[in-house]
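Table S4 entry, RimJ/RimL family protein N-acetyltransferase.
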Amino acid sequence: MYSIPLGDAELGPLEPWHAEEFLANIDRGREFIGQYVGLPDLVTDLASSRAYLQSYADKAASDTGRLHGIRRDGTLVGGVLFRTMDLTQGVAEAGCWLEPAASGQGLVTKAARVLIDWAIEERGIHRVEWRAASKNEASIAVARRLGMRRDGVLREYTLHRSERFDLEVWSVLAPEWQAQSAAE
């Protein structure tokens, strides 16, 4: 399996055969991750872990999504993904998760940069979106660090664990990303 260095961590694909490792990662961060996203509610046992990873293997095969894990010292601590990818429209929605021990260290920002570079430069994606609950300050901070602009707020859009959240939509367009990358 290939991996891409991220300083003191690495980024690599997550496959169905990583189901035990993925479940362990979700278990370590279940409440932290689940504050704003439904991933921990979907991945509750080995079968659901394998099914989730298989759904992304199927998306990768059909070129409609991607899932990559972030590992530190060989341990899966989180990941980044393209929840959706529409090559015809040139639009993708990126996302992430991270267990608490790995948060606040810039890992998601570094990993998302790699994924966005790939999507724009290799797959021809024109617009990458980042959606986050308005209360999810860490995720919104990632969007800002990635140079994204806030497109707007979908009021009370997300129902999560019986609570309605406003959902912020952030995005970066290929020409903006390329100009930003050239300036760095």
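Residues 46-62 form the longest helix (17 residues).
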